[in-house]
Amino acid sequence: MSEIRVRFAPSPTGQVHIGNIRAAIFNWLYARHVGGKFLLRVEDIDLERSTPEAIKALLDVMQWLRLDYDEPEVYQTHNVARHLACAEALLASGHAYKAEKATKDGKTGEVVIFRMPKEGILSYDDLVKGHMEKKAADTQDFVIVRSDGSPVFHLANVVDDLDQGITHVIRGDDHVENTFKHLALFRALGAEPPRYGHLPMIVNAQGKPYSKRDGAAFVGEFRDQGYLPDALFNYLLLLGWNPGDDREVLTRDEMVDLFTLEACHSSPAKFDIKKLTWMNGEYIRRAPAAEFEAELRRRVAAAGLTIPEGFDVPFLVQQLQVRTKFWGDIPGNCAYFFTDDYEFDQKAVEKRLSGPEVPALLEDLANRFEALEPWTAAAGEEMVKQLSQGNGMGPWVHPIRVAVSGRMEGPGLFEMLQLLGREKTVARLRRAARR
């Protein structure tokens, strides 16, 4: 079999939609799996919308997701003369004709129209959706060169695929109807067409195409919100494919090894932001502890906080890493370790510190913690268990947590107290008792 060559051919007209980048991911993985070539073609033929800024946004996203390509990117505008030469060849062979057509400004102009076959059945075997066919009589001729002399997408797309030697076209199933046109164009040009596979649409909870109305829809938005590139890459892969078992978090090497087009789904894929957030947390949890510590130190410093000399940062990493969903959450999740000027969650205060018995309880706990030896998580937990006389942690745990951190959630309570130290713990308990 000759070398497999696939391409990602976006029209950069702004930000990059997750549905488009998912097609790039599938093409990249297929090429890497079979040892073929993955190419990037920038379909910038819409000169009004394909601005330098839009093209830069596309290239930045590709780099961020580590979607490297094997040959220099091709810009469709550089090939216009070739597109028009093919249009002339189609006119000469009788596969196209000229006609007058109304333009947007109400005038008329001469266009080139491709003549679709009108007899029999048009069919092809889709790599994802299976056998596809339609009656030739149901198709319509279509414009391939506008009245201003510019080539239309259909012609440019086919000629560029032909010139780049593309063997497999993997794209969204909104192109299924286009494929019948493109197959006819390839054959009219006397060329063997590539094989086509169409990926399912990404939909919202209502089964409608996922769009900006449903939340973040562009890759740049997810990047700005703190999602990791590998987490987004992994999640988008699972929208339309699975490894054949219950694994969800995969390394890049595992994805390349396991990916096949046969395992792609043909039914729509539902986008679930909660699942993506969970996956982002999984990637952070699995990161090397040294990487998490470096992020923690950098972000704490950027928030204007200072880690005291001798503070047990590795132990804090153990407590926070398994609970962090976004890097950006780090300062807010640990600020109370480094400053006494931390915010109190008012709902937590109302629920856990407002009872008439709470002040006396916190004062009693402050006295007990002041005398606790040794100052460890295990010793603190044992002391509170004894207070409860075997009935769990009784009424003590939640008021302690809110008093010393201002929050209802966080690391294990007694690990938190160990990190805070005796002096801060006792002072904060007494301060909360006297609010």
What does this structure look like?
The protein is α/β, with parallel strands linked by helices and 435 residues long. Among the domains are: 1-68 and 200-286, 3-Layer(aba) Sandwich (Rossmann fold), CATH 3.40.50; 289-433, Arc Repressor Mutant, subunit A, CATH 1.10.10. Helices cover 44% and strands 13% of the residues. It has 18 helices and 12 strands. The protein has helices spanning 18-34, 52-64, 80-93, 153-163, 176-188, 219-224, 229-238, 252-258, 273-285, 289-302, 313-321, 330-334, 346-352, 358-370, 377-388, 397-405, 413-420, 422-433; strands spanning 5-8, 37-42, 74-75, 96-102, 108-114, 121-126, 130-135, 142-145, 168-172, 195-199, 202-203, 269-270. The strands form 5 sheets. It has a 3-stranded parallel β-sheet with strand order 1-2-3. A 3-stranded antiparallel β-sheet has the order 4-5-8. It has a two-stranded antiparallel ribbon with strand order 6-7. β6 and β7 form a beta hairpin. α7 (229-238) packs across α9 (273-285) and α14 packs antiparallel against α18. The longest helix is centred in the first third of the chain and has 17 residues, at 18-34. It is elongated, with a radius of gyration of 30 Å. The model has no long low-confidence stretch (mean pLDDT 94).
